[in-house]
Amino acid sequence: MRALIQRVKHAQVDIAGQTVGKIGNGMMILFGVAPTDTLEDADYLADRCVKLRIFEDEQHKMNRSLLDIQGEILVVSQFTLYADANSGRRPSFTGAAKPDLAIPCYEHFVKALKTFGVTVQTGEFGADMQVSLLNDGPVTILLESKA
Fold first, then answer.
1. What is the pLDDT of residues 36-87, one digit of tens each?
2. 66: Cβ–Cβ under 8 A, 6 or more apart, which residues?
3. Assessment of whether the complete model's pTM goes beyond 0.90
4. Is 122 a catalytic residue?
5. pLDDT tens digits for range 100-115
6. 3-state SS of the chain?
7. Annotated active-site residue in 31, 55, 79, 109
8. For a designed S-S bond to 41, which of 57, 62, 144, 145 qualifies (C-beta 3.0 to 4.6 A apart)?
9. Is 94 a catalytic residue?
10. Beta-strand pair 62-64/55-56
């Protein structure tokens, strides 16, 4: 499982011209699932995301977590995080889980994030989405459930 985290001032996701998810200060998480991933991987990543200290303190050091700043999260499913573009010109997506596994993992990840009491907004799994954000820093970090 992969979570590409971007520290943001704000972010939103639109589908067919309608805003379906919108947050203020916090993190936008692009979330991808591999065929070998489990619900336990989703729990692990949720814990890592909300406790990751990527927000600045008074000394401008990254010492605060999302929980510390009472930030919000926007989660967008992103199977292309498992793209393999090492050969040819067109990426292969065989490293991404099929929807019958990916959807329950995605939904479980979102539910796990909410157990921490944070505001969580989402896109729509499998939809053609337009995502906009203001990356703060910029800070972008890739977390994986398996080393």
1. 999 999 999 999 999 999 999 999 999 999 999 999 999 999 999 999 999 8
2. 26, 27, 49, 50, 51, 52, 55, 73, 118
3. yes
4. no
5. 999 999 999 999 999 9
6. CEEEEEEEEEEEEEECCEEEEEECCEEEEEEECCCCCCHHHHHHHHHHHHHCCCEECCCCCEEECHHHHCCEEEEEECHHHHCECCCCCCCECCCCCCHHHHHHHHHHHHHHHHCCCCEEEECCCCCCCEEEEEEEEEEEEEEECCC
7. 79
8. 145
9. no
10. antiparallel
List residues bridging with 3 in a β-sheet: 31, 143
- Out of 80, 115, 130, 140, the active site residue is 80
Point out which residues pair with 143 in neighbouring strands. 3
Which domains does the chain carry? 2-144 (3.50.80.10)
Among 72, 147, 63, CA closest to 114: 72
Which is the catalytic residue, given 6, 78, 121, 122?
78
> Other CB atoms closer than 10 Å to residue 114's CB: what's the count?
13
Q: 113-117, long-range: CB within 8 Å, 24+ apart, which pairs?
A: 113/46, 113/49, 113/50, 113/73, 113/75, 115/46, 116/46, 116/50, 116/67
| Cis bond before residue 35 (omega within 30° of 0) | no
